[in-house]
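Researcher: Going back to the complex we discussed earlier. I've cleaned up the inputs and rechecked each line, so this should be the final set. Can you rerun the prediction on the complete assembly and write out the structure?
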Amino acid sequence: MKRLLFILPIIAFAGLAVFLGIGLTKDPKELPSQLIDRPLPEFALPGIVEQPGSGPPELNGFASASFRGEPRLLNIWASWCAACPQEHPVLERIASEGFPVYGIAWKDKPADSRAWLARYGNPYAGVAADEQGRTAIDLGVTGVPETFIVDKKGRVRFKQIGPISPEVWEGQIKPLLQQLRAEA
Amino acid sequence: MKRALLALALMLAAPPVLVLPAAPAAAVLPDEMLKDAGQEARARAISKDLRCVVCQNQSIDDSDAPLARDLRLLVREQISQGKSDAEVRDYVVERYGNFVLLKPPVEADTLLLWGGPFAVLLLGAAGLILWRRRAPVAAPDAAPLTEAERADLDRLAGPSN
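Model: Rerun complete. Updated structure for the full complex:
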C-alpha cells in the first residue's frame, strides 16, 4: 500500500507527460474539415479580369457546378499569402501531371491576383475571386493556402491545410486522386 | 498663438459629456454595428462565444483578424435576417465545426472534457475515504504492558497516592 502511494505520483506524471507529449505533435491550426464526404457548397464566383468576359477564359471565374465528372483540386490562395509562392511550383507540377487545379483568390483585389499570376505563372485551369470571403466561410477556410480535393460527384474528399509539399502530393493527394479517378 | 489659446479654452470648457466612456476591449468597429441596439447586443453575445479560427484563443468579438471581422459581419447579417441565436450559431458550426464554440456542447466526444474534472474529483474523494478508513487498521496494535514495563512506569511516575 505504502509502495503504491509512493509510485502513484510517478505514474500520474508519466501519464500526463504522454498525453501532453501527444498534444505537442498536433498542430492546433489543423482543424478537421466539416465538409469531408459532403457536397462542395454552392457558389458562382466572378473572375479576376478587369472586364467580365475579357481576357483568357480561365481567369473569368467558375461555379461549384463545374466540379463534376472528374476529380479536381480547389486551391484557396491570395497574392498577400506568404506560403503561396512556396506551394506554387507544386501546383504547377500537379497541373502538368494532368490534374486540373482551380484557384479561388481569397480576400484579394483582382488586380493584385492578376499581378501575382503574371509574376509566378498560372497553374490554374480556372481562377475566381472571393473578395468578400463569403464563399471561403462556406468552405470553412481558416487561412491560405488550403486545398480541397473534390471527387467526380462534386463531394469534398480531402482537405489540405497549408501548402502542399512535394511529399504530401506524392504520398497522399496523388494516390487519392488516382483512386477517385477509378471510382464510378 | 491665439488659436492655441482658443483650443485650450475650448478643451477646459468642454462639458464632461464629451469625455468618452472607457472603450470596450472589443474589435467591433462602428461601421460593423447594427442599428438596432437589441440586435447588436445579441450579435455581441454570440460573437463572444465564437472562436476566431485564425487566432484561436480569442473570440471573434476580440479579434482584429480579417476572418474574424467577416464572421462578425456574417453573424450580424444573419441576425438582421431574423434568425434566432441558436440558428446563427448552428450556421457557423456547420461550416467550422464545434471547435468554433468557445464552450463546446456536451456530446459523446466531449464527454471526457466535461466529465473529466468531476471524474478526477470523485476518484480523489474515493481514495481519501479509503485511506481514512484504513488508517486506524494500519496503526500497530497496542500490546498490553508486561509486568516489568508496568513496574518501570510506576517507578518513573513516582509513588502513586
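Model: Worth noting: Helices of chain A lie at 2-25, 84-96, 110-120, 134-139, 166-182.
Researcher: Good, that matches what I expected from the previous run.
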